[in-house]
Amino acid sequence: xxxxxxxxxxxxxxxxxxxxxxxxxxxxxxxxxxxxxxxxxxxxxxxxxxxxxxxxxxxxxxxxxxxxxxxxxxxxxxxxxxxxxxxxxxxxxxxxxxxxxxxxxxxxxxxxxxxxxxxxxxxxxxxxxxxxxxxxxxxxxxxxxxxxxxxxxxxxxxxxxxxxxxxxxxxxxxxxxxxxxxxxxxxxxxxxxxxxxxxxxxxxxxxxxxxxxxxxxxxxxxxxxxxxxxxxxxxxxxxxxxxxxxxxxxxxxxxxxxxxxxxxxxxxxxxxxxxxxxxxxxxxxxxxxxxxxxxxxxxxxxxxxxxxxxxxxxxxxxxxxxxxxxxxxxxxxxxxxxxxxxxxxxxxxxxxxxxxxxxxxxxxxxxxxxxxxxxxxxxxxxxxxxxxxxxxxxxxxxxxxxxxxxxxxxxxxxxxxxxxxxxxxxxxxxxxxx
Length: 434
Fold this sequence. Notes:
With 434 residues, the chain is an alpha/beta fold.
């Protein structure tokens, strides 16, 4: 082997050697890591958590003063400067004077209660916080903080005597559809200079669902949903509820469907043949791709239409499926549906409502009605292509959600296209599209 070949092969051998060494080291270290996790961590976990909570008490300003005290003392000792030692002494004194404000344990009992965990966008959520003193001594005034989503509300709790109770009411305005995390309620104690801040959580967080606006469609959906028992199709079946005709018996047919009167008259075995029926099943494809909407208001309108149609289908005990890009919205009940829609947000995706329609057709081929929801950016060609992906026999209603447009209905490639500019016009639009 030449010198050049040896030089080329050497790096590969070295890499394999390092890889093998890493694997061997991993096999040797893995048992030690497992032993540490099972035996050692439970023993040191309380100390680690306590140290972490202590390190969170000083604020940024507190850490700056502490660092100033330490560096001034060290520099004063090394350089022999009395001025630096005086600075260190003053900083230490300030820290010591601030400690009593956070010393001691708080004996609070705090309850967080929301009047309703579900509100419609635009409504105010109402709740209250009850703070009680469970000790036999007086508790100093404190601040109670309540995180609400990304916001923060603060309440002043006055000095509480033994067994005293303080209650604060609050309201949460809702301007947009979302799921807010309310809490946990925490007590905050600190010194006037802001050197220390001691925070203690007292409750678990609570979810507040801000539902989309919906409208009732009772009486306006006649012709939109099929009967619960379904409508006959042209597909023939050997077992269903809609009788079609008789045919000769073929080996393997279910003998329960043999028509014995015909056999008595003709001497030939005849079996009943049925037309397949479909159970009423509403499938909704709600696009959350921002490219399918001109404005965010169009998307909010589409979500509200989805909630209104889905809620009406569930009210009439129809089967419901709701698809968005990347997930299937839970829709076992009205509450579950609206909770899921509360959390839906727009997301950049390669999938437009056209691709979502294809997914709907393959996921729910037995649906009786398919509703496609999108914005005003959709073109007739896109609508025609999207409706072509829905299986034959499934009724297609495409709802174009816009702003400042009049309600109208037209037909594109067999699909009823409803243009909608206001949620209040949905009932009238459905009657036109029926």
